[in-house]
Amino acid sequence: MSRLLTTLLLYRSGFYVGKYISLEAKIAKNKDLYYEALSASQNGWHEGKDDPVPFIKYLLGTIIAAYRDFEDRFALVETKRPALDTVRLAVQNKIGRFTKQDIRELCPSLSLSSVEGALRKLVESGELKREGSGKNTCYYRIN
């Protein structure tokens, strides 16, 4: 409930990034950091010595990361280009292993089949390496 209220307060203060990038999803990806920051902020609460700064820093970092994601997505869709080129650009922003879902999040204007087809072509051309199968499939750049 508090995360929903946080998003509402951000909207009311003119921070609309949560409309395009899910802050909830960003928090869920790193739940451990969220709970660490929350815990650090609550230490000493019973004695009146709690410190909200760790949680504020965490939340601001999450908001900044959301704006960066939004900037990356906007850069991918502002120019109309073929699906293969759009996915190729999205892949260039990824470090290490990534999933088809990671690319779908970066390319919301593309259908699932377009993303799958582009990833398949990038694997065939040797630009990407594919590991695993089914839901455990991940990719990484070769060069």
Describe the structure.
- The chain folds into 2 domains: 1-7 and 16-78, no CATH class; 81-143, Orthogonal Bundle (Arc Repressor Mutant, subunit A).
- It has a two-stranded antiparallel sheet with strand order 1-2.
- With 143 residues, the chain is mostly helical.
- Helix 4 (31-42) packs antiparallel against helix 5 (53-77) and helix 6 (83-92) crosses helix 8 (112-124).
- The chain is 62% helix and 6% strand.
- The protein starts with a helix and ends with a strand.
- The mean pLDDT is 87.
Features:
single chain; 143 residues; mainly alpha; Arc Repressor Mutant, subunit A; 2 domains; two-stranded antiparallel ribbon; 8 helices; 2 strands
List the helices and strands and how they pair.
Layout: H1 2-12, H2 17-20, H3 23-29, H4 31-42, H5 53-77, H6 83-92, H7 100-106, H8 112-124, E1 128-131, E2 138-141
